[in-house]
């Protein structure tokens, strides 16, 4: 099989690897679609993502969907051809957590994640024609949700988790700072949750156009000097830019809430934080997700449309070009998708991958 593999900073290859087998408790998924994430770009550009440093070649990708190709021993209730996405997290150890963190598995201290170099040996991702997956990590796609859209259940789950951290948003006006893929998905998730007016701010007109297509009611082009809305009771910060924190806190109403879902750098960075104290702002972090991947699939089945986010599509053999487009702010890209094998008929969610099965 072919796999999109990073060998070092700036060294991306489409390697030939042996087809995986389905051991006890596993299935083999024939991957159809994958979405490129910021961590994939970080490994390719820098040989690291956050504190995880590349030591060996790593298959990228944690936003994937496809169909079950083979079912291993000990797996029941799963049939070949079933369209699925994958929860990419696997807890390492006994999974026990303090009572105060019950259910918040995203905060478990040791987690293997698809396409991550946090452990050694590394955890290969799903940017390959086949991937062996633990059966309990499978999430069947609901009727009407194809594998292309299903590949975005993972980032949508991140957005839904961030919205849940904000509390009850029904009928409330919310500002989203940052119109990258997560910010745009946050806007869609807010509207799905019944939020009132959702205003999205960014420095890129192309990104703001995607935010509008994803449901944003108002846009602020910061590059033109347009300010963030004043006295916002809820702000979701999705840019991860330390320089944005000062304006975000200043725009937040006294006693308001900021949810930080944009991934801040792990190194020292200057930021203006005085308003956090004087305005008594509640600042909450939001990290990955726990159960929300199931909620993401339900939301898509109920009509949350992720298609405007998918601005570019490339076949597997053009993976490096896809990465360059995803990394280039001038490309106008939002979510760049990789296609593995022929494109299934989007009008027939049950169409099997006969070429790979």
From TrEMBL:
Gene3D superfamilies: Medium-chain alcohol dehydrogenases, catalytic domain, NAD(P)-binding Rossmann-like Domain. Residues 328-357 are annotated as: Disordered. Keywords: Metal-binding, Oxidoreductase, Zinc. Residues 181-301 form the Alcohol dehydrogenase-like C-terminal domain. Its cofactor is Zn(2+). The keyword Electron transport does not apply. It holds the Pfam family ADH_N. Residues 348-357 have a biased composition (Basic and acidic residues). Residues 24-142 form the Alcohol dehydrogenase-like N-terminal domain. Belongs to the zinc-containing alcohol dehydrogenase family. This is L-idonate 5-dehydrogenase.
